[in-house]
Amino acid sequence: MRLAVVGAGTGDVVRAAGLEPAFTATTATGKVMGGELPKIPGGTNVVLYPASAKAGTDLQNGLSEAGFDVRRLHTYDTRAVSGVADADLAAARGADVVTFGSPSAVKAWVGLVGLEAAKGVPAACIGETSARACRAAGLERVYHPEAPGIEGWAQAVADALADTR
Predict the structure, then answer these.
(1) Nearest residue to 140 (alpha-carbon basis) of 112, 116, 162
(2) Angle at CA 82, nearest 5°, toward 78 and 84?
(3) Distance of alpha carbon 91 from alpha carbon 82, whole angstroms
(4) Distance of alpha carbon 149 from the chain centroid
(5) Which residues, including other chains, have CB under 8 Å from residue 144's CB and lie 6 or more apart?
(6) What is the Cα–Cα distance from 154 to 150, expressed in whole angstroms?
(7) Contact assessment for residue 24 and residue 11, using Cβ atoms and an 8 Å cutoff
(8) Taking the CB of residue 67, how many other CB atoms lie within 10 A of it?
(9) Are 111 and 120 in contact (CB under 8 A)?
(10) Whole-model pTM?
(11) In terms of C-beta density within 10 A (0-12 exposed, 13-18 middle, 19 or more buried), how is residue 65 classed?
(12) Positive or negative, the Cα torsion across 146, 147, 148, 152?
């Protein structure tokens, strides 16, 4: 079995587990990976795609369109918190910047604090997928790197902080 990873960060986790990815997408998005993953000549080209139950279908669709037999396996799910202590919520509402690593986090945050409160704070996202979710939710001050990843996300936080001054 060969392992493919969507980005360098996932590759680092895979390596830490003692495995070596055979392929890493040039940009850490499902859409890019779906278009770049090479087929194995003479192979069955079956792809096991472990994902969140809420994950989008960009990767799955891209791989299917490229002729892979994709077998999606929902390995986890995300759920919004059902409640936050008043003191914690007050502290969170006082943040200068809110960061998002997934569309589900955007939805949970807006649901927790309300759209008007969420719109008033700059959002720093790990990548375009979370940024799109912010804009779709009605947030206006959204920052994200061109290529997803921790270093770009840190720069997005710095850019968002500059927006608060």
Answers:
(1) 116
(2) 115
(3) 17
(4) 9
(5) 124, 125, 126, 127, 128, 130, 131, 152, 153, 156
(6) 6
(7) yes
(8) 8
(9) no
(10) 0.68
(11) exposed
(12) negative
CATH fold of 4-76: Rossmann fold (3.40.50)
How far apart CA 122 and CA 162 sit, in angstroms, is: 10
Q: In whole angstroms, give the CA distance from residue 133 to residue 111.
A: 13
Rounded to the nearest 10 degrees, the angle between the axes of helix 86-93 and helix 103-113 is 110
Domain ranges for the chain, please list them.
4-76, 86-162
**Nearest-angstrom CA–CA distance, 49 and 61:** 11
Going residue by residue through the chain (165 aa), what tens digit of pLDDT does each one get? 889 998 888 899 999 999 999 999 998 888 888 889 998 888 889 999 998 888 888 889 989 988 899 999 999 888 877 778 999 888 888 899 999 998 989 999 998 898 999 998 999 999 998 999 999 999 999 999 988 888 899 999 999 999 886
Residue count of the chain, please give it: 165
Q: b or e along 81-100 (b: 16 or more beta carbons within 10 Å of the residue's beta carbon)?
A: eeeeeeeeeeeeeeeebbbb
DSSP per residue over 41-108, as a string? TTS--EEEEEEETT--SHHHHHHHHTT-EEEEEEEE-----S---HHHHHHHHT-S-EEESSHHHHHH
